[in-house]
Design brief:
Largest interface: A-B, 48 and 48 residues
Oligomer: homodimer
Largest sheet of chain A: 5 strands, mixed
Order of helices and strands of chain A: EEEHEEEEHEHEEEHHHHHEHEH
Structural class of chain A: alpha/beta
Shape of chain A: globular
Helix content of chain A: 25-40%
Chain lengths: 314, 314
Amino acid sequence: MYYVGIDLGGTNIAAGIVDESGNIVEGKSVPTKKERDFSEIIKDMAMLVTGMIDKTGISLKDIKGIGIGSPGTPNSKEGIIVYSNNIKVRNAPICTEMAKHIGLPVYLDNDANCAALAESYFGAAKGAKYSITITLGTGIGSGVILNKKIYSGFNFSAAELGHTLLIMDGEECSCGRRGCWEAYASATALIRQTREAVSKNMESYIYKLVDGDLNRINAKTAFDAADYGDETARKVVNQYIKYLAEGMINVINSFQPEILVIGGGISKQGDNLVNPLKKIIRKNIFCKEVSQTEIKIAQLGNDAGIVGAAMLAK
Amino acid sequence: MYYVGIDLGGTNIAAGIVDESGNIVEGKSVPTKKERDFSEIIKDMAMLVTGMIDKTGISLKDIKGIGIGSPGTPNSKEGIIVYSNNIKVRNAPICTEMAKHIGLPVYLDNDANCAALAESYFGAAKGAKYSITITLGTGIGSGVILNKKIYSGFNFSAAELGHTLLIMDGEECSCGRRGCWEAYASATALIRQTREAVSKNMESYIYKLVDGDLNRINAKTAFDAADYGDETARKVVNQYIKYLAEGMINVINSFQPEILVIGGGISKQGDNLVNPLKKIIRKNIFCKEVSQTEIKIAQLGNDAGIVGAAMLAK
């Protein structure tokens, strides 16, 4: 049996036909052009899917259904995107509309939840009954998997772990609140922290790395400069890891997942990231006398969105 | 059918026979005397239960089992208290030991989890698929109920919501970490905040309320003085409610329970507490465009421990 997954992003719509083992047997993407009418976006999604089905020659009866991972707050029961700040829609009945174009059942969930589902089925959290995947990007996405299913609360809008506090009334967060974890430990936050540090220490190697153009600083810059031995960068990285670890402790004390997976570009730092994280977590975790949550790096990379969305149809 | 519930506290062991409707048909308690050998505590627990059974004349075959709510970190699968700071035990096989005294199956869970289960079965969270009860006392206890069952993670030590951050590296917490919600929003924290405020404002009505003896300040004092119109007390109460609300927002953004129940002595403030809490929560919650978590006051009071423990056997 096959499953279609669609990762509906602010920049691109990426779709794939996924097999039972989580392989994308055929994939295709088009620009979202998110400012256009939503019906046009749905038409493009449908064309992507029919194009892939035609190309592979897979029979419609061998495809169990279509899953869509969308940004924002979807109501997965009703198949409606209630609200998204990224693609400008409100109360869009995306599943019904898609089903009009293709005779397959259509499912919907949040993109971060889909990434977590993918890691749970085929990635770093495979085999775990309870797992959580956090994705460090523009914000902090998060998905909680309990008994191999996405947990999204009574109103389908959990789990927004990026929007729990690190420092009450602290840094402004995109959600309107102050002091959220996301405002300290997302890739965006790390870039801000790197810029602030280098603008106070112009002799830092970071400055050379970006040829004096602070707009060229990305989430990798501080790690690269720290590897080179730059003191300013090392301080930025240590402080960032502290922010990340303290939020992860909150997640563990709340959910005690068997595996906590870190995804997003920053996770490519691998052991450079995981080892110091583990040290802080071990020190400050509430329950030291029980089995401890494993911290792992995500395995599915950018495919997680498509693969996880496809598994919604499983 | 009947169920026996035992609330094993640091001060008293309270036990009850509970019917299908959550009524305690017979109850009894003895002092824990927690410093003695744990086998003595178990003997007393067994005597309490057999005493109640004899007194009521309920047949053993009409009792489904015995549930024990204990402080600390129990392993509910193995029936072992892994660790408790309150009663000084480690890796105590409490269920096996109890079963040696009485021929009934014995179940175990954390006391805060039991309180949450009781509110879910018969109290403020009745009917909700997903609910959370927080208990404001010496610390902040918390229990997460998903699908009418206690959620306690892969290692049975969730959910310690009192030990998520309000202010990183802030006030010292009993768990060894700094800045936990419990260090700001427990009854203990409110008493500390009230003392600090009055010691800087000796003309406050609080000072009169306790006849100048700051040791007489309890978790009700600031609320009472604020009702009287005292400005110092009003500030303490407002700040406390802000601390409580911000932690509750973290809980809601993480779990999106249908109902979030507040228990413990402070919850007796009722609408004086709930209304200002709701105002802050509404303002800072992540998802404003979906159904919102209801905030309710616990209904079962001190019985919650016994009733919830009994429901472990259901």
